Amino acid sequence: MAVKNLQATRRRKGEVPSRSCEESTLSMRLRTPVAISLIVLASLAAYHNSFTGPFIFDDMGSITDNPHIRSLWPIWEAMKAPDNKTADGRPVLCLSLAVNYLISEYRVWSYHALNLAIHILSAVTLFGIVRRTLQSERLRRAFGSDSYWLALACAVLWAVHPLQTESVTYIIQRTESLMGLFYLLTLYCAIRGMVSRHSRRWYAAAAACCAAGMGTKEVMVTAPVIVLLYDRVFVTRSLRDIFARRWGLYTGLALSWLILTALMGSNPRGASAGFDVQPVTPVAYAMTQCRVVLHYLRLSFWPDSLVLDYTWPVAESLQEVAGHAVILAALVAGAAFALRYVPAVGFAAAWFFVILAPTSSFVPILDPAFEHRMYLPLAGVVATTVCVLYLAAKAVAGPARARGALAVTLAASVTAAAALTPATISRNTDYRSAMAIWTDTIEKRPANARAIGNRAVALEELGRYDEAIADYSSAIELRPRYVAAYHGRGNAYLAKALTDEAIRDFSTAIELDPNLYQAYSNRGIALTRQGRPKAAIPDFTKAVEIAPDYEKAYCNRAMAYGQLGMDNLAIADCAKAIKLDPAYAKAYNNRGLVYSAKGMYAEAIGDFTEAIRLAPDFANAYGARGAAYLALGEPRRAMADLDQAIRLNPTDKLARKNREKAMKLPK
Predict the structure, then answer these.
(1) Do residues 424 and 43 make contact, with C-beta atoms less than 8 angstroms apart?
(2) What is the domain count for the chain?
(3) What is the CATH number of the domain that holds 659?
(4) Angle, CA of 214, 215 and 217, to the nearest 5°
């Protein structure tokens, strides 16, 4: 009893928190985990159907045709990518792809899972940034009491918005979302450092995140500018005070520019970005962006028609975009005005325009429009919309019913999220197959030669060669110098055993692009199939001269050497292909064929077995191993393999012939 009285006395004096205070403290501690849980659940709801979409478009060059990601060691090798591919010069992105390959090789689920995890972490970080910004000294009076719910609304709406699907569901555009995560973390850590007693730790973390972002995508170049602008708008009164108090932070952020400079110097993107891009001039590109940026803004509020590949036409005159230019100029002028007189609104507008500047201003990029470029700018649009709605509701409700403004804002946000989430789910279904996403793109952009060419690739993979050839021909008609279409049509002709037509198209592709090593290799295959292995070898050799890591050329040259009886060279080429890609089943199979031709059946069976382990549906490997067992006088084993070969490929005449021989042998 005395103890209870003592506790009551201490509570009255404020020495012991009351139960309501304790409950309030507990509630505050639970708020962040609850917010994170809601963001995770909302993101999972929007992207639950995104885990099976195949590799498409630029995924091929940066993932499936990237030998560097097949090993995490040495780590500097894992950070590389083939020249002029999306991952080229972006070592942090490449390292993340190598981690995925270690987990699931080319099975797509882990790539999608990591993409979604990055997106969720970005949304959680955005929640932290918005909440702390609304609690800042300059905004606390207007938003402080409701900052938690407003920040949560912003994070959820941003996470489930369909405009984000290209950065999340399209695997290689992890380059945008991963850079976005580092960008947001850079700002978040800087904000924490500005109000923390352990500021140096936070500033070091901000500099580290900024450096990682520079190694992910070039748009990160704007991050130090945004941090400085945030500091000036929400924290410090003058630039002199900023650099006096936080010179260490800005030195660290500025040093990260050296990383980007070094990466861009060693991996220039002159063919796809920069002032050397032909035939786009800076003026023409800037005029084009007048339409593109307004299109991005429209999609932010009404994402009704998303397109994977726009191939947006370049503006030829100012008259074409005069109306759009006037509107965009007014928006930019409004952003500058707001920075001076309504700094918080000005910061949100600057966030949008500054982050878009590297891709949507006057520096030409081969593709003027891609939706993934809105990954971070969308945050400024969403946050501004939510906060303006809240302030408007507050003004209408008046001081007496100020709490109702939050209810109105949350109700509108929940309604918007309920509408956006199904749209995102629906958009994810477009990525369910290469055929689906390219058909969708062609429906929205019928004159897009690249989309038609990519659908042809999908048709070819489905074995629909005549349809693929028709699509390739349509793409070439739209774009007569379309190298990939000639090369793709050559592959389709090759699959139909039309080797003369294939050689013609491969030769045209080589004339248009003398460094297209795949075309040399494939022309070599066509020549080999015509019984001209001696003529094929120079093509294979040219392919490996251009691309020393192209394992397929070594593997194919091995078959040409084998036809010429040059067995040792054939075995050496297969070994080189296996070294480059230890999971390359065809290389094991081809070396096994050479061993079989030399009568080295034990070695051949070992290679065929490894090929089957790597590719359990490899019909030819079963047939070849069955033939090897047959040569060794083991009919039972031969029969088992030959039966499996015939099940997998009922048209395999050689397997059937060998099976008849095996049946005649004594068991």
Answers:
(1) no
(2) 1
(3) 1.25.40.10
(4) 65
Structure tokens given for 418: 């309920």
Q: Which two tokens stand for residue 28?
A: 């505050």
What is the Cα–Cα distance from 623 to 611, expressed in whole angstroms?
12
Q: Quick one: what percent of the chain has pLDDT higher than 70?
A: 93
Is the Cβ–Cβ distance between 386 and 157 less than 8 Å? yes
In a domain, 383, yes or no: no
SS3 597: helix
Q: Which residues is 273 bridged to in the sheet?
A: 365
Nearest to 592 by CA among 607, 614, 571: 607
Residue 82, pLDDT score: 86
Residue 23: its pLDDT value, please? 43
Evaluate whether residue 590 is within a structural domain: yes
AA letter at 323? G
Average pLDDT over residues 141-168: 95
User: Which amino acid is located at 10 in the chain?
Assistant: R
Question: pTM for this structure?
Answer: 0.86
Do residues 166 and 59 make contact, with C-beta atoms less than 8 angstroms apart?
Answer: no
Dump the DSSP string for 563-583: HTT-HHHHHHHHHHHHHH-TT
Tens digit of each residue's pLDDT (9 = 90 or more) over 310-355: 999 999 899 999 999 999 999 999 999 999 999 999 999 999 999 9
**Is 60 exceeded by the pLDDT of residue 6?**
no
Nearest to 527 by CA among 481, 552, 490: 490
Give how far Cα 597 sits from Cα of 260, 385, 494, 565, Å: 53, 72, 26, 9
Residue 637 belongs to some domain of the structure: yes
- What HEC string does 88-112 produce? CCCHHHHHHHHHHHHHHCCCCHHHH
Crossing angle of helices 377-397 and 109-134, in 10° steps, is 40
575: alpha, beta or left? (left if phi > 0; alpha if psi -120 to 50): alpha
Single out the residue of 358, 293, 360 nearest to residue 327, CA to CA.
293
Mean confidence (pLDDT) of the chain: 91
How far is Cα 40 from Cα 90, in angstroms, rounded to an integer? 28
Q: Which helix (H) or strand (E) holds 410?
A: helix 402-430
In single-letter form, the type of residue at position 318 comes to L
- State the average pLDDT over residues 485-511: 97
Tens digit of each residue's pLDDT (9 = 90 or more) over 371-428:
999 999 999 999 999 999 999 998 887 766 667 889 999 999 999 999 999 999 999 9
Res 398: pLDDT: 74
d(CA 360, CA 357): 5
**Cα distances (angstroms) measured from residue 530 to each of 77, 188, 411, 597:** 38, 63, 70, 20
pLDDT at 276: 58
Alpha-carbon distance of 280 to 522, in angstroms, equals: 33
Q: Give residue 277's pLDDT.
A: 60
Structural domain boundaries enclosing 619:
583-667
The one-letter amino acid at 426: S
Over residues 580-600, the pLDDT tens digits come to: 989 899 999 999 999 999 999
What is the DSSP annotation of 469-509?
Answer: HHHHHHHHHH-TT-HHHHHHHHHHHHHTT-HHHHHHHHHHH
Q: Is residue 524 part of a domain?
A: no
- For residue 365, the SS3 value is strand
What is the C-alpha end-to-end distance of the chain, expressed in Å?
95
